[in-house]
Specification:
The chain is 29% helix and 13% strand. The chain is built from five helices and nine strands. A hairpin with a 6-residue loop joins strand 1 and strand 2.
Length: 275
């Protein structure tokens, strides 16, 4: 039986040619290039949605706490009989969310805690920082760190604010994402003040830099919990920092600002410094 004759099993199948194989490979490569970014974007959107849900629940816990304590926000941290001597707002809010966060600040290192952990934290963490439970920081203007009186300048020592102090709750930041090394932030992006951080005795600058580093966590921006309880995404300035080391922030002019007086019509701010 010759090579070109048919057998009882039908015509013999010829092998693919090199050109056909190259065409198939090219098609697979093209489909991969098109679909992989789509899948990556979908995964990022899912992580972002989880972060939004976390912030909403944390906001609800903070507001319920305030209702239980004469309509006053909890402090960012307070003195406690712990190894570190400080219990922060995570612990104070925990009875309302049941996350199981340990009371001691030092015990939070290396712990990943569902509602207190942003799914994108591991992708954006600062090298050497191991506090994934500290993915969110509260606004010092509303929830000051009364447990750090020895570290803060006298002008920054204050008590937690009453709910009535917030004049524009839909635009005042209550909670923002941070880089993992702090539980509160000033929200400042003034290069002249933040560039010197961290310096002993000036956690204001260090916590502001922590916020700046995290404000690009989700698609070149991040979500903020506003004082009225709603969560909204705002784009960070571009570039986010003005130096390669990421130590000097680029000041925002229209999204979330540090001061209301810089742009009263901006999306929001940490500090209501004008009527």
């Amino acid at each position: 039986m010759g090579p070109n004759t048919e057998s009882s099993f039908g015509r013999r199948r010829e092998a693919f040619t090199l050109i056909e194989l190259l065409i198939v490979i090219a098609i697979i490569t093209l489909l991969t290039a098109i679909l992989f970014p789509t899948f990556a974007a979908a995964r990022e959107k899912a992580r972002q949605s989880t972060c939004v849900s976390n912030e909403r629940q944390l906001g609800a816990a903070i507001l319920v706490y305030a209702q239980d304590y004469d309509e006053t926000y909890p402090p960012a941290n307070c003195p406690a009989a712990t190894v570190s001597g400080i219990a922060n707002w995570y612990y104070l809010a925990d009875p309302y969310i049941k996350s199981g966060i340990p009371a001691d600040v030092l015990a939070q290192a290396g712990i990943t805690k569902s509602i207190l952990h942003c799914p994108d934290y591991d992708r954006t963490a600062i090298p050497g920082v191991d506090y994934p439970s500290r993915c969110y920081g509260v606004n010092r203007r509303l929830m000051p760190p009364v447990g750090e009186a020895t570290m803060l300048p006298a002008a920054y020592i204050s008590l937690p604010a009453p709910l009535t102090q917030v004049r524009t709750p839909a635009q005042t930041v209550l909670l923002a994402e941070v880089a993992g090394d702090t539980a509160w932030t000033e929200g400042m992006d003034d290069p002249a003040r933040v560039a010197a951080a961290p310096v002993a005795g000036t956690p204001i600058a260090a916590t502001s830099l922590s916020y700046v580093r995290a404000r690009i966590r989700h698609s070149d921006g991040t979500e903020y919990l506003l004082a009225d309880g709603h969560v909204k995404w705002f784009k960070a300035p571009s570039p986010n920092t003005l130096d390669a080391a990421g130590q000097i922030p680029n000041r925002s002019i229209d999204g979330i600002l540090y001061r209301k007086s810089a742009n009263p019509s901006a999306g929001g701010w940490f500090y209501e410094d004008v009527d």
